[in-house]
Amino acid sequence: MKKIAVVIPSFRVKAHILGVIAKIGPEVWRIYVVDDCCPEGSGEFVSQSCSDPRVRVIRNPVNTGVGGAVISGYRAAIADGADIIVKIDGDGQMDPAILSRIAGPIISGRADYSKGNRFYDLRHIKRMPKIRLFGNAVLSFMSKLSTGYWKLFDPTNGYTAIDARVAAHLPLEQISQRYFFETDMLFRLNTLRAVVADVPMDAVYGDEESNLKIRQIVGEFLAKHARNFSKRIFYNYFLRDVSLASLELLAGVLLLLFGVIFGSLHWYEATTTGAATPLGTIMLATLPILSGLQFLLAFFSYDISSTPVTSIGEMLGSHSDSNEEQR
């Protein structure tokens, strides 16, 4: 039987957290409530009001954000010997009844990390606030580029589960500790070549208030996506391995840059002097642009098809079985 641990980051969720804990089923071995320096004193509130013997309260001395709180829970669960770690928000938006479904791909060995997807059933999308719907669509495309998991959607969904062995290999101290946490996790998982699975789920929207302000994080998210995309490309196509796709990317970028710069210079010269641009000059700018786009399309086609398919957990399990047979 797998030891399933639940991590609940707690910040301004005092009104909901006891209800969330009460709905967590007996399949869960331990529950970590992480008081992220909550002004409501949620950690103390849970300690005094909750009699569930599975609950452990962790208190962060300073506010570290949702990511920092989850990382504190991960460290505690790994140290205590958990096999699978599930993260649930304390505001009641995530239904604990589907916890086993979220962890299912890891329990079966099909994935190393699984996450909810609120967009799988189109009938439920109408319930989602329009601003969240639009924001998730934009963030999903950006996340595909920066993480390399092209088949995933709803990247900011915080209902997640991870194989504790994989979590132990992540550079937890380097992962973004605030609202970019879920997306940064996917980037870090890709560097390990971990398998990630989407799990259909519905979302619940009640009287809870989100601490996330879209206008405050747009610029930060854009910068971090660009950084992670650059790192992922460098790690996977130039540092770890050099393949035909690496050459396609280089050729595509160089040809596209040459065509755009060369064409722009001659277009500017033609507009300022009024002289007609020779057909050969136009072709010399156009052909590299078209060729560069073709190379880049070929590169992205390869990148999309190279999503990890063999889970780290499965490989570790096979290695352990092999060792047992040798003994």
**Helix-strand pattern, N to C?**
EHEHEHEHEHHEHHEHHHH
Number of domains: 2
For the largest beta sheet, what order do the strands appear in spatially? 3-2-1-4-6-5-7
* Structural class by sheet pairing and helices: alpha/beta
> Count the strands?
7
Q: What share of residues are in beta strands? A: 5-15%
Shape by Cα distribution: elongated
Round the mean pLDDT to the nearest integer and report it. Answer: 89
Q: For this structure, what is the CATH class of the largest domain?
A: Alpha Beta
Describe the model:
By secondary structure, the chain is an alpha/beta fold. It has helices spanning 17-22, 42-49, 65-80, 99-107, 122-125, 130-147, 164-169, 181-191, 214-239, 244-273, 279-305, 312-326, and strands at residues 4-10, 28-35, 55-59, 84-87, 113-117, 160-163, 196-200. Strands 3-2-1-4-6-5-7 form a 7-stranded mixed β-sheet, with helices on both faces. Strand 2 (28-35), helix 2 (42-49) and strand 3 form a beta-alpha-beta unit. It is elongated, with a radius of gyration of 24 Å. The two termini are 24 Å apart. The model is unreliable at 319-327 (pLDDT under 50).
